[in-house]
Amino acid sequence: MEQHRATGSKMPSRRLLIVDDDQKFGHVLAEYFSTKGYEVRVVLRGEEALALVSVFQPHVVLLDLLMPKMSGIDTLKRLKRLSPTTKVIMLSSADLEEVAQGALQLGVHAYVCKPPNLSELEHLVSGVWPSRES
């Protein structure tokens, strides 16, 4: 598990969990969001995300669809039971309308195709941020 923390910020902690089996991609996202003031954790598997969610309490999860063992959809279903208010943005290299619609019906906030435009992804993430710290 990788940790990235923003420093020197007076803003409340904005916690972001990245779940992606592509370690390099996860690292790129973590570095980007860390520079934007987010407190970021990165895990490679759905099981790790579920174990971390109750401790870290992320506001937003960037979740890969295609992962070994536990898929993004399976992770999403369990994550929503553990933390119903956590916003989930699904990322995938699969640009399939039926997959995106299925994910949206299961409660993801958005479905984004890889590779994402980082500034657009950050705009999407910041748009679902809670208006005040809970």
What is shown here, in short?
This protein has 134 residues and is of the alpha/beta class. It has five helices and six strands.
Could you characterize what this model shows?
- The chain has helices spanning 23-35, 46-56, 72-82, 97-105, 118-127; strands spanning 2-4, 14-19, 38-43, 60-64, 87-92, 110-113.
- The chain has 134 residues and is α/β, with parallel strands linked by helices.
- It has a single domain, classed as 3-Layer(aba) Sandwich (Rossmann fold), CATH 3.40.50.
- Strands 1-3-2-4-5-6 form a 6-stranded mixed sheet, with helices on both faces.
- Strand 2, helix 1 (23-35) and strand 3 form a beta-alpha-beta unit.
- The longest helix has 13 residues, at 23-35.
- The two termini are 25 Å apart.
- Mean pLDDT is 88; it is low at 6-11.
CATH architecture: 3-Layer(aba) Sandwich
Query: How many domains make up the 3D coordinates?
Result: 1
The first-to-last residue Cα distance is: 25 Å
Structural class: alpha/beta
CATH topology: Rossmann fold
- At the fourth level of CATH, the homologous superfamily is Response regulator
Order of secondary-structure elements: EEHEHEHEHEH
Question: Please, what is the average pLDDT?
Answer: 88
CATH class: Alpha Beta
Low-confidence stretches: 6-11
| Strand residue content | 15-25%
